[in-house]
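[worker-b] picked up task from shared queue
[worker-b] task type: protein-ligand structure
[worker-b] ligand name resolved to magnesium ion; SMILES cross-checked against name lookup, match
[worker-b] sequence length check passed
[worker-b] input payload:
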Amino acid sequence: MNWDDTTDAAPAAERLVDPAAERLVDSAAERLVDSVADREDQAVEAALRPKDLNEFIGQEKVREQLDLVLRAARARGATADHVLLSGAPGLGKTTLSMIIAAEMGAPIRITSGPAIQHAGDLAAILSSLQEGEVLFLDEIHRMSRPAEEMLYMAMEDFRVDVIVGKGPGATAIPLELPPFTLVGATTRAGLLPPPLRDRFGFTAHMEFYEPAELERVIHRSARLLDVEIEPEGAAEIAGRSRGTPRIANRLLRRVRDYAQVKADGVITREIARAALAVYEVDSRGLDRLDRAVLEALLKLFGGGPVGLSTLAVAVGEERETVEEVAEPFLVREGLLARTPRGRIATPAAWAHLGLTPPRSATAGNGQQDLFGA
Ligand SMILES: Nc1ncnc2c1ncn2[C@@H]1O[C@H](COP(=O)(O)OP(=O)(O)O)[C@@H](O)[C@H]1O
Ligand SMILES: [Mg+2]
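[worker-b] inference finished, payload out:
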């Protein structure tokens, strides 16, 4: 067995700007269960976004807290505190930023960390804000250092120093900003430097959604898309949506297509099941790639431990694809574990694929020998 590639049990997720992940996002965009928006998502999401806090489904704690923050600011006639939204892609961060602006009756300006290459880019945006405007900074963890430092001052004192000229002759011209609300979004709250994190008055952690909440999302979207859906059909889609509204909405659209072509357009449980079988999204939301990884781990390596590179070769994929595209969900679902000795399958993985684990594989924690294999 290959032991040389097992030292990376800590995932590569800690890299700040991750070109490999960027490429993967592109190549994985065709996956039905990808939580990052593809072109079609972007086109339809505007129509599906809840417009105010009442319409926003789930995330009860976040909604309640945010409601208080915004109400209090409105009552004071003040601009709301800066808000940081953290959570996985597709959980509603962009939607919430727009809701914050709508609830405050304020315009919103949308930009993102990667779009701000130089401090000057940020200065240009900040200096053109209106009083009370919401500035939505998506992927705030990917902003450049100099821009970040300018942002500290802007958030705290509503002021920036604009540097004019170069070299020894350069001078800093202070510029007053109107009060504004920064809404930052990040998938990696842990990567934000503490001074930046501390400057947000309110931080909301978005959790994955419960199936019942996703059912409500699906019913709501079906209404907006003018699709007829039965409760069992919605439940079937919700269970395969990986806790993510964006995926739920995407699966709904694919099932709708199937229902229109193969049936009378109504989404029943049977139609949802048949459609998602065609699209290879299984009962737990695993797709072809996820299942291939799991199957290789179980059938070829007896449930592991096996090194990442070996596993990747076995499924004919890049290491990074296995590690960054397939594994995070498998780990989250408790189907696969990363250990210092390699990847191992959990008992739930055997059960999910309907296979019986060999007696020695069930311990899965390096203590197999104790059970006398
Ligand atoms: N709580 C929610 N209720 C209803 N729809 C939601 C909710 N959260 C997200 N969505 C839907 O999911 C899609 C993705 O949401 P978005 O705000 O773009 O996620 P993020 O910015 O976190 O990636 C949008 O189309 C939105 O309509
Ligand atoms: Mg977003």
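[worker-b] attaching auto-annotations
[worker-b] The first strand starts at residue 83 and ends at 86.
[worker-b] releasing lock
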